Amino acid sequence: MSLSQKVAIVTGAGTGIGKGIAIALAQRGAKVAISYNSSDAGARDTQQKIEEIGGESIIVRADAADKHEIDSMVNEVARHLGGIDILVNNAALQLNLNLYDHDDETYDRMMNINLKGYWQCIQAVIPYMKENGTGRIINISSVHGKRPTDFDTVYSMTKGGVKMLGRESAIELAKYGITVNTIEPGAVNVGKHGTGETRRDIRKKFPLGRIGLPSDVASMVCYIASDESEFMTGASIRLDGASMLL
Questions:
Q1: Would you write out the chain's pLDDT as a tens digit for each of its 246 residues?
Q2: Which end of the chain has fewer beta carbons closer than 10 Å to its terminal beta carbon, N or C?
Q3: Residues classed as catalytic
Q4: Residue 92, domain member (yes or no)
C-alpha cells in the first residue's frame, strides 16, 4: 500500500491515535502534516519519529474548532507540501461527563471540536482534492456513536454525528473522485495508563484478548488512503476486536 508522495493532514497528531496514524502514513511514503492544538511537545515527538524512518513532515498548529485557523492550516500545508490528497479527521475532545454534569460551555466545546471541526476541515480540503480529481477523507469516530452506553452522552452524540457527516459527504463528493469513510475504534491503549485488569478479565470484554492499539487504527487508515480502496466510500468500519458483540 504505497502512498509515495501523497500529502496527508492528520489532526490531533501530537498524541495517541493521531500520532500512530501520522507515523504509519509516513512509513508508506506520504508527506505528513502533523496538526495539533495544544500538544506542541507531542507534535515535535511525532515529527522526530517520522524523521527517524526517513519520512517527510511539517508541523502545523490549528484549533479544530476555529474555521479561520483550519483554513490557514490547510492553505499552509498545500503551499509547503504541494497540494492535499488525504485528510484524517482525528482531533477530538473527551470530557467523560455525565448527562447532568454537562452545561452549555462543555456541550458547545465538544460539538465544535468533535463534529463541527470535522465538517470545517472537510470543507477546507475540498478545493484541493477537486483540483486533483481524487482524494481520501477519513473520519475517526468511535463505537460510542454506534451503540448507547453510560459513557458520555454528548461525546456519543458527536460521534453519531460524525457517521452521518461521512455518509452524506460521501454521496456529495463522489462525483469529484473523493471518498469519505469512517473508522469506529473501540477501546484503544494510548499509553496513558494500564487497564488494571487481568487477561482473563479483558477477554470477557474483548474476544481477541486485548484492547486496540494506535497501530491497529493506523493500518486501517493506510488501507483506506491507498488506491486499493477506491471503490469504498460512505462506509463505517467498526474496529473493536468484536467487543461490541458481547
A1: 789 999 999 999 999 999 999 999 999 999 999 999 999 999 999 999 999 999 999 999 999 999 999 999 999 999 999 999 999 999 999 999 999 999 999 999 999 999 999 999 999 999 999 999 999 999 999 998 888 777 799 999 999 999 999 999 999 999 999 999 999 999 999 876 455 566 667 778 889 989 999 999 999 999 999 999 999 999 999 999 998 888
A2: C
A3: 155
A4: yes
Range of the domain at 201: 7-245
Distance CA 180, CA 233 (A): 5
CB 73 within 8 A of CB 49: no
User: Do the domain assignments include residue 154?
Assistant: yes
In a domain, 2, yes or no: no
**Cell reading at 19:** 500520532
Angle at 151 (CA atoms; ends 149, 154), nearest 5 degrees: 100
Q: How many domains does the chain have?
A: 1
pTM for this entry: 0.94
What's 111's domain CATH number?
A: 3.40.50.720
